[in-house]
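Why do we care about 3D structure at all? Because function follows from shape, and shape follows, mostly, from sequence. That is the central idea of this module. The next example makes it concrete: a single protein chain, its amino acid sequence, and then its structure expressed as tokens.
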Amino acid sequence: MSRWIAPTTLLGQHVRLEPLSMAHHDDLLDAVRDGELWQLWYTAIPSPEGMAAEIERRLNLQAAGSMCPFAVIDPASARAVGMTTYMNIDAANRRVEIGSTWYRQSVQRTPLNTEAKRLLLAHAFEQLHCIAVEFRTHFFNQTSRRAIERLGAKLDGVLRSHQINPHPMAAGNLRDTCVYSIIATEWPNVRAHLDFQLSRARPQESRAC
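And the structure:
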């Protein structure tokens, strides 16, 4: 594991991010069934039967130093409601991507998501002293693109025919990947923007299920 980014717990009012472990499996199994998220052809969300393998995959990447995975915990229920990661860790250039993120349907577009990104960005820029933080998503994942843009990230460009889509509904199709970023000099304004959004959140909006 790269010592630049070590497993840690990040605490907020609406969410807690804690190091992913196999102990989160059953909660995540229930979470992914909320909305049958693995059916979305433009995402790579694990199916219920693939959840254990996905947790193991992320932990193996952590051991290799290229990922730092988190379980997303709803404080109201103390249950895991999704996953997120620091990935494509580039310690030499102090760059990281926030990605491989998914949440159960009932907590999407709530303060939980906004604060999770706020915690990850703050840790990246204020503790890890990142130069830039990236976000990547499928060109057709409009929900994800809008969410990234609401954070204040800017579109760097589109990587055309970037990857082969493994999803059964689009097997063999080529994915165009939208690359967004927030750079260090933009972080103070992005932080103020996110804090303003969170200040307007009603407490009941943060309930996970």
